[in-house]
Amino acid sequence: MNFKPKLVRKGGSESKAGTSSNYEPVTKYMTTDLITFTPETDIIKAIDTMIEHQISGAPVLNENKELIGMISEKDCITVIIDSVYHNQPISTSKVSKYMTTNLKTVSIEADVVDVANEFLKKNYKRFPVTDDKGRLVGQVSRRDILRAIKAMDVTTWQNEVKVSRS
Fold first, then answer.
1. Continuous H helices in 25-72
2. Is pLDDT of 155 > 80?
3. Cα distance from N-terminal residue to C-terminal residue, the chain
4. Which of 73, 23, 82, 19 is nearest to 48 (CA)?
5. Looking at the whole model, is its pTM more than 0.85?
6. Domain 6-158 has CATH 3.10.580.10
């Protein structure tokens, strides 16, 4: 008798346990209709937009629509420190001053397990998703991965039993 566990997902599709290539692609859960900023965007405008749209951050693109950074709530919180401790006027500050330029991106080829592992390793709330030429095609957040988890039934295992007959 051989035992080979198989993961059964909602909808009945099966995959061998431990093979990440059979998991849902990140493209199924990522957001493609993105709010983006430019480096020249006023930081207050970026903060207003993030509050209005209830997002925790967004990609920053240059004039050629290339990804050059990310701006997050945490980056924006620095604004108050600069204002209070360094006596800098908020009204003249731009996104370029606060954005993060040391980016971690995920490939359009990644699956949700790959991205979940990256979220566990890094303290980011979102990753830009790029194609093979490095172009921004979407963004995946922790919440998107939670939606992927909800779509999977990872606790259901089935036994594959083979009985040899002589």
1. 43-52
2. no
3. 13
4. 73
5. no
6. yes
